[in-house]
Amino acid sequence: MANKVEVKELLDAGVHFGHLTRRWNPNMAPYIYMERNGIHIINLYKSAAKMQEAGDALAKIAASGRKILFVATKKQAKEIVAEQAEKANMPYITERWPGGMLTNFVTIRKAVKKMASIDRMKKDGTFNSLSKKERLQVDRLRAKLEKNLGSISDMSRLPAALFVVDTTREHIAIKEAQKLNIPIFAMVDTNSDPREVDYLIPSNDDASKSISKVVSYVADSIVEGLSERKSEKPAKKKEDSNASGEKKAKAAAPKAEKAEVPSKDAEDKKAMKEAKNDVKLESKSETLDKAKSSNEEE
After folding, report:
1. CB-CB contact of 67 with 229 (8 Å)
2. What is this structure's pTM?
3. Rounded CA gap, 145 and 80, in Å?
4. Among 139, 161, 208, 284, which has the highest number of CB atoms less than 10 A from its own CB?
5. Tens digit of each residue's pLDDT (9 = 90 or more) over 84-123
């Protein structure tokens, strides 16, 4: 469960400031509180509720062990998103969105592998055998790949969700995620279409304070989900060991019972033997009685 969102903190961060009224998207009407000086004011109570909902969903995804990709290429959001994504140990894109990042993920992975192969070349000494011009070209290629794809080098498969700052600017990322049915979490301003995302957070996506407030809350929710995952693992191991111990005890129990309690066949044989002995004794006593009575008559 994500932490509770305080409306006052959102107000102090300027999350409520929307765009000019002439630039609004009519689909954002349910999240707009009022208009002031030609600017739309976002309803912070709805923003708080949506942040809580998004935080809970992201915590569950993180607890399942899957990755959430952060996307923010606008100047005022780059550093904030990079810092918070690293804190949550999640991949992020803060430079130009590489076309086909999701829909052509295999090619992107090849580029990441190329970066790893250059690093191996430098370690095993192959790099030093190249000419000066070739080394310069390889260094430039490595720097370019690091800039664009360095933050997703650990992402071996498609992310489970996308968190986007400014859906209008990152429309290519949104379209790719929609094609692959990847859930989209996003900060949505009054000039954006909320129907494009699955979990929207109505908020000011231009001010750095507002971005910082929302993204830090999201990152904290993810960290909370990851900590839950870590705490669940030892408990599961303990349960498994207890279950295996019970199975061993159950397997050993019938053997013990078998050793202590005699079988039914053995009991039957014993009873038959006793019965035969009784019959023999009875027949012997009868013959003795007959002999005695015949002697008396004589």
Report:
1. no
2. 0.74
3. 21
4. 161
5. 999 999 999 998 898 889 999 998 888 888 888 888 888 8
The pair of structure tokens assigned to 216 is 């830090």
Side chain identity at 280, as an amino acid letter? Answer: K
Q: Burial-class residue 282 by CB neighbours within 10 Å (0-12, 13-18, 19+).
A: exposed
* Gap between the Cα atoms of 43 and 93, Å rounded: 29
Model confidence pLDDT, tens digit, residues 256-282 = 444 444 454 555 555 555 555 554 544
Question: Rounded to whole angstroms, what are the CA distances from 291 to 136, 154, 216?
Answer: 129, 107, 113
> What's the rounded Cα separation, in Å, for the pair 102 and 158?
7
For the stretch 126-130, contacts whose Cβ atoms lie closer than 8 Å and that sit 24 or more positions apart, written own/partner, are none
CA within 13 Å, CB half, 144: 9
Measured CA to CA, the distance from residue 68 to residue 58 in angstroms comes to 8
Which structure tokens are listed for 42?
């976002």
